[in-house]
Amino acid sequence: MSDESPSRTIRIEALTRVEGEGGLHVRLCGERVEEVQLTIFEPPRLFEALLRGRSLEDVPDITARICGICPVAYQMSSVHALEAALGVTISPEIRRLRRLLYCGEWIESHALQMHLLHAPDFLGYESGLAMARDFPDEVNRGLRLKKHGNQLLEVLGGRAVHPVNVAVGGFYRSPRRDELAALIPDFEWGLQAAIDTTRWVAGFNFPRFERPYRMVALVHNDEYAMNEGLITASDGEAIAAADYERHYEERHVAHSTALHSVHQPDGGAYFVGPLARVNLSLERLSPTARRLADEVGIAWPCTNSFQGIVARGLELVHAYEESLEILRDYRPAKPPRVAYQYRAGTGCAATEAPRGLIYHRYGVGDDGRVTEAKIVPPTSQNQGQIEDDLRHYLPLVLDRDESQTALACAHLVRNYDPCISCSTHFLRFTLERT
Question: HSE-up of 403 (CA within 13 Å, CB side)?
Fold first, then answer.
């Protein structure tokens, strides 16, 4: 940019995502950032409307189709909310199986994101495939870890993508002991590989970018929260899922078809995801993950979003260690599904998807059909925070050439792992001068 140019516009026009497409628009006046818009221009997917009038038993299978990477998060949130509406209490055996299923999803998602989607940014490669030429062992390790998560979803969920064994009240079928026992050797290898992965990414060169985040995640008194707990913020606010909509609101913004979530009453952005979870529940990590958190040289709580990759690694270790504990001591749930009666009511639930907090609310009639549905995914909750991060990060990278400035923006967005597709097909960049 010449000294005579008072303003310029940076556009990243094709930000492709699993849930649609988007882009990034930045307007600058000199070195001052005047406007940042993370634009989502996908067509409406209408899942909430699609669920109305359907049998409540259809909901877990339909919501699983929202995302091919984290279907379990949508299924778990839906069954917990529907069980709250029906007054269903599940058995401890079913509860443990649900945590095991969630561990499988965290493993496959975190392993892929860390090795193939995020690590190339820190190591200077344009893609995981390009990185594989110089880091074949690390890429192969990531693929093997991802396969472990998929195998667990196949055994517990019936298939690796969009599982079909999850039901209101439990599971349609409990896996046999030998089916789960067969996974133990791979998961023992995977635990050590997850430790090695976390040490590897902790050694990356991280930009210095600390921010005063409002971090939000589930917190449980007795365990590392996955599908139960209070929705807790770093300022100490803790609420039940039933109170979520009194404290967090989705708003329409003109530049995006996706809703932005804000905290009420201040209307501020907030941060969800692995870094928020580790910051709020560090002491509840599994023993190996907790020791590793002390080893990696990060001061917790951490407020540098670039170091979220290390938090993912700690969760990967936790997921393997908890999985092994359940696999070694598995007893089939009998029955695998709790019986229930239809009744009219409303139920809410929040769980922790790999990318952060996810919230569901359903109304049901006494005929067992859905009367209303509300689904708030983690990406929509992080969108406002991503924009706010970019406003503060851009002044630090504007002295670079145009392509490097665009790359830096893409890198920051990938800290949030908003979606697999957007992490692999990033961004056409243009610069307008006036």
Answer: 1
- pLDDT single digits (tens) 351-391: 999 999 999 999 999 999 999 999 998 888 998 899 899 98
Same-domain status, 102 and 165? yes
Please tell me the distance from the alpha carbon of residue 123 to that of residue 201, in angstroms, as a whole number.
Answer: 10
CA 132 to centroid of chain Cα atoms:
25
Q: What is the pLDDT of residue 66?
A: 83
In the predicted structure, residue 399 carries a pLDDT above the cut 60: yes
Q: What is the CA radius of gyration of the chain?
A: 21
Cα–Cα distance, 281 to 219 (Å, whole number): 7
Number of domains making up the chain? 2
Could you tell me the two tokens for 315?
A: 């969760």
Contact 375, 45 (CB under 8 A): no
Run of H or E including 79: helix 71-86
**CA angle, 237 then 238 then 243, to 5°:** 110
Question: Same structural domain for residues 373 and 393?
Answer: no
- pLDDT tens string 129-152: 999 999 999 999 999 999 999 999
413 — pLDDT class (breaks 50, 70, 90): confident
DSSP state of 434: -
* Cα–Cα distance for residue pair 296/274, rounded to 1 Å: 16
* Residue 229 included in any domain: no
Does residue 398 share a domain with residue 326?
Answer: no
Which structural domain range is residue 77 located in? 47-205+306-379
Specify whether the CB–CB gap between 177 and 348 falls below 8 A. Answer: no
